[in-house]
Amino acid sequence: MNSIQQDPIQFYKQIEAEINQRIHASTNSRDFTAAVGKAMDSHLREIRIYKRLTTRWLSRLDLATKDEFAALSNKLIDLEGEIDSLDDSIYEIINLQKTNHKKLKMVRESLEEWSTFLNGEVRDKRSEDIKSLENDLEELKSLFELDIKKGGI
Questions:
Q1: What does the CA dihedral 37, 41, 47, 49 come to, rounded to 10 degrees?
Q2: Residue 68 near residue 76 (C-beta atoms within 8 A)
Q3: 66, 81, 132, 153: least surrounded by Cβ within 10 Å?
Q4: CB-based contacts of 32, cutoff 8 Å, min separation 6
Q5: 26: Cβ–Cβ under 8 A, 6 or more apart, which residues?
Q6: Is the dihedral of CA 99, 105, 108, 109 positive or negative?
Q7: Between the CA of residue 25 and those of 17, 22, 28, 50, 142, what are the distances in Å?
Q8: Using CA atoms, how far apart are residues 144 and 132, in angstroms rounded to an integer?
Q9: Exposure string (b/e) for 107-118, b if CB count within 10 Å is 16 or more?
Q10: pTM metric for this prediction
Q11: What does DSSP assign to residue 61?
Q12: Would you say the C-alpha torsion 136, 141, 147, 153 has a positive or negative sign?
């Protein structure tokens, strides 16, 4: 069964090899290369003529040319890049803002704790000062009373 299948495969490979040889034989010459070169030059001249005509017609009809579309596409690509850059910057700024907000919240809480602590300390100091003044007044009063008692006896 394999030998039957290999025969057609071999046959087609042989045909392919023969066709490739003929193509190579007919195209591997200076005359062929020169003829292809002339045909390419002629084709390029026609393309240039058609391009100029097309550009003139588009200009007269006030329509965009291929070059204008290419320039516009390049500007669009540049703008997309700038928008992406701005988007990244905004994302970074938002993240920094969130971080700063958390830090600010911590600072506020710390300041509130300090404020509470300092208010308590001020209250304690004032009450100590008042008690100290009361004690001093009591001592002065007792001294005046002793002086009065000593002077009155």
A1: -170
A2: no
A3: 153
A4: 26
A5: 32
A6: negative
A7: 12, 5, 6, 35, 139
A8: 18
A9: eeeeeeeeeeee
A10: 0.45
A11: T
A12: negative
